Amino acid sequence: MHKTLERQIKKFLSGADVSAPHWQDFLTSIDQAYIHFDEDRQLMNRSLEISSRELMDFNEKIATEKAKGDIVLESISDALFVTEKNATISLINKSGEILLDCDSDAMKGKMFSDLVLSINLENGESVPPEKQPIQMAISTGNKVTGTFLLVKKDSSRFLAQISANPYTINHQIAGVACIVRDVTKEKEIDRAKSEFVSLASHQLRTPLSTIGWYTEMLLAGDAGAINDEQKGYLEEIYHGNKRMVDLVNALLNVSRIELGTFMLTPEPVDFVELSKSVIKEVQPQIHEHVLNFEEKYQPNLPVVPADGKLSRILFQNLITNAIKYTPPNGKVIVSLSTALGKDMGHGNPTEEYVLFSVADTGYGIPKKQADKIFTKLFRADNVREKETDGTGLGLYLVRSVLEACGGEVWFDSEENKGTTFYVIVPLSGMRAKKGEKALI
Amino acid sequence: MDQAGQKEKKILVVEDERPLNNALQAALTHAGFTPSPAYDGEQALECLSKDTYGAVLLDLLLPKLSGLDVMAKMAERKDFTPVIVITNMGQEETKQEVTNMGAIQYLVKSETSISDIIKHVQSLVKPGYAQNA
């Protein structure tokens, strides 16, 4: 490079002494500049090569992801509607087209509420667009779910479970991904199952009445005198039958809870009186289990708007459980007071509740099974053998009832030391619930 | 025993399940009443048109004519014989409906002991008649 430059300079400026030191410096600096330029060029070339390779990789990745996305969208059996921020539909999968009998192109740009009419299942009224899950998800920024009766353009209808989930771009809500599932069949099966249980339970009550009544008459000596041994056997039959009646009632209640047909009618209830009356009913069991039973009631506890029957179910279940699962000479304390949510760490912090608690010195609930205690048909391992008399439905009923009315249930327990169950009901009262059937 | 006393003693037991009907008759007889059985709604109405009773123990799920239909017919005929409904449909709404139709009591069979049913009958018919029978 240096020599070429020398020749060029000599030719251009004839007579110039390129061997002079300032020319040499000049030539060297030019040379250096060329070398740097070349290095830069090579660097740029390399980075261009890398960028183009990356771009190709990236394109391939996008194509792969898109293919995956497409196949996922097409494969899912639930209908998917993706909307823009203004709730207009921009993407629909195949199941969505099939569900609404409508071509994807015909649906794009429209709102979900333009395509189907949504009916509220509780009151049978149509739901305005702004109260439907998609619009609610956009306006609140939260996932919104619900079950509605959807009526298509051809007037056919189906029960749909809708879940609208907002998505964000640069921290701004950009639209909603809405999954719509036709649950008509599932609900029908569920209903059929619960109706079967309900019907079977009603039918079971007739032979149970027969057994109960005849045993009672034999025990009363209506058919002649019986000896002590016969009396003992008959009493076993009578109690076995009573247990079966309780089980059938519990099954009926569970089916009503699961059918959603149970009703909740608040009326003024004096919880202290209710507790006393339930305890009076179970005196024979308290006596039989040789328990030290204590009642602690806050003076002048307010009367609470509550469903009397349901409240009785709550009290009965918790009190009889304490009796059943406490060994002889143990202690049971039933108490009623008022308390603020924040003082208990349960319910709404600022709301005032009636707190009903039942503490026992019983077998306790094993730690590893604590989370299952409110599930249907569950019975803890440590009491299964000690106390066979249990349906596994009581606490499930208690929790279901409280969930429906705005209350709560929880417990503290230590195995072989005892358990305390706590139930809270808002002082303002239980939430009313319309339904066809009362619990028993 | 006067005529009125005889009437009070008679109890119509309308129950299609024979073992239950028999049990009720036995317990009523034991308590000094004179029970008559009916096994369906039509038979119940026939008995009521032919005779007078101190009370009717009435099941709701009956062949031919339901217990509710029997009560409606009784109201039509202005038959005011006291009715105790005995059923296994422990529903608040059914209870409300039969109470509105004039039933004095609504008892769930599997929940009620037979001695309690007899006590309800005894409290309905004028005290003294059955006991003096």
Descriptive account of the structure:
The complex is a heterodimer of chains A (440) and B (133). By secondary structure, chain A is an alpha+beta fold. Chain A folds into 4 domains: 2-72, no CATH class; 76-182, Beta-Lactamase; 187-259, Orthogonal Bundle (Helix Hairpins); 267-426, Heat Shock Protein 90 (2-Layer Sandwich). Chain A is built from 14 helices and 13 strands. In chain A, strands 2-1-6-5-4-3 form a 6-stranded antiparallel beta sheet, with helices on both faces. In chain A, β5 and β6 form a beta hairpin. Chain B is an alpha/beta fold and 133 residues long. Chain B has a single domain, classed as Rossmann fold. Chain B has helices spanning 3-9, 18-30, 41-50, 67-76, 92-100, 114-124, 129-132, and strands spanning 10-14, 34-38, 55-58, 83-87, 105-108. In chain B, strands 2-1-3-4-5 form a 5-stranded parallel beta sheet, with helices on both faces. In chain B, α2 links the parallel β1 (10-14) and β2 (34-38). In chain B, α3 (41-50) packs parallel to α4 (67-76). The radius of gyration of chain B is 14 Å and the shape is globular. The termini of chain B are close together.
